[in-house]
Amino acid sequence: MTSEALWALGRGTGITALGFLTISVTLGIATRSGRPLLTLPRFAVADVHRFAALAGTLLVTLHLALLFADPYAQLRLVDFIVPFLGAYRPLWQGLGTLAFDLLLVVIVTSLLRHRLGLKVFRIVHWVAYALWPVALAHGLGNGTDAGRPWFLVFAGCCVLAVAGALAWRLHSNYTEYAGARLPGRP
Description:
One of its GO terms (cellular component) is membrane. This is Putative ferric reductase. The chain crosses the membrane at residues 6-30, 51-71, 91-111, 123-141, 147-168. It holds the Pfam family Ferric_reduct. InterPro entries: Fe3_Rdtase_TM_dom. This protein is mainly alpha-helical. It has one domain. The chain is built from 7 helices and no strands. The protein has helices at 3-33, 42-69, 90-111, 113-116, 118-125, 127-142, 149-170. Helix 1 (3-33) runs antiparallel to helix 2 and helix 3 (90-111) packs antiparallel against helix 6 (127-142). The radius of gyration is 18 Å and the shape is globular. The termini are far apart.
């Protein structure tokens, strides 16, 4: 495979991974809401959330493997684990490494969910809220296509989806908060 093909596939898998991770985060928020999402029952939303997370994880892995094989990217094994050591745009590449490290934490806790217990799983799973914006920042800062209008529209749609889900979750009639007493309300 040529260097150009590796670079194009590496970029494409990174962008597609961001899309799947956006779906996963958005549906993860929706799953916890206890409210139906369109006509899908809650278990179906949870299944799509898990599928999107798995697909995003596989695409991130492919993204890393392709760019590691690409001589232009000049990635070293240490660049996958220790952030901010890369030769090319160390800050932005380091954010990608940090996002990958956070993704590993989420994967490990998901695999050990039944051994860790639900409370520990949920606490550690909140790392996904940090993972997503770090991955987005990596794509915007290090991505070859970051300045192109189509990518900015794509990234904007990702931001709107997650922001909309967060606003929905933080709304006072959110199921988890329905029984909570709010200040100023009887």
